[in-house]
Amino acid sequence: MACHTEELQQVGVLPWRIRRAGERKLFLITSRRRGRWIVPNGCPKKGYPLFFAASREAFEEAGIIGDISSVPVTTYRYMKVRDDGSQVACRGTVFGMNVRGTLSHWCEKGQRQRRWFSLEAAAGKLDDVELAEFVRELESDPERLEAGSSSNWRSLFPRPACTRKLR
């Protein structure tokens, strides 16, 4: 679905990594307006696979690069507050991303905070009940993050406009 229908289709990334001691960590960012802890997400791009748009959102919103699953790890529903204060129902399709690197400068650096959390702490920070419940379930089944085939971010898309030289 396009982003201007009754129910918005959103795509997102659940960024993760495994620490040397084997502990799994999740990477969350804050929303721009309300400062809530969320996963990088946005609208799909017409003509491209959903995981493509999810990977691009992770790069632009969180400044992360990595290997993204081409198969969603979960879906959830939530209410999005628009700029005018109205609310719209959203369906989020989330892809796991094994984070390989974080950038020190990225498109939305001045608009968001970002931080690594344990699975338990991330579940407690997320406002979205369904997504938080999925994260809680990862404690007993962490391999769910690694489901599906991986695609390297470099081959997915050209550099976004915010990283191109300004004239």
UniProtKB/TrEMBL annotation:
The keyword Hydrolase applies. The keyword Metal-binding applies. Its cofactor is Mg(2+). InterPro entries: DDP-like_NUDIX, NUDIX_hydrolase-like_dom_sf, NUDIX_hydrolase_dom. GO terms for molecular function: hydrolase activity. Keywords: Hydrolase, Magnesium, Metal-binding, Plasmid. Residues 8-139 form the Nudix hydrolase domain. It comes from the Bacteria. Gene3D superfamilies: Nucleoside Triphosphate Pyrophosphohydrolase (3.90.79.10). PANTHER family: DIPHOSPHOINOSITOL POLYPHOSPHATE PHOSPHOHYDROLASE, DIPHOSPHOINOSITOL-POLYPHOSPHATE DIPHOSPHATASE. This is NUDIX hydrolase. It comes from Shinella sedimenti.
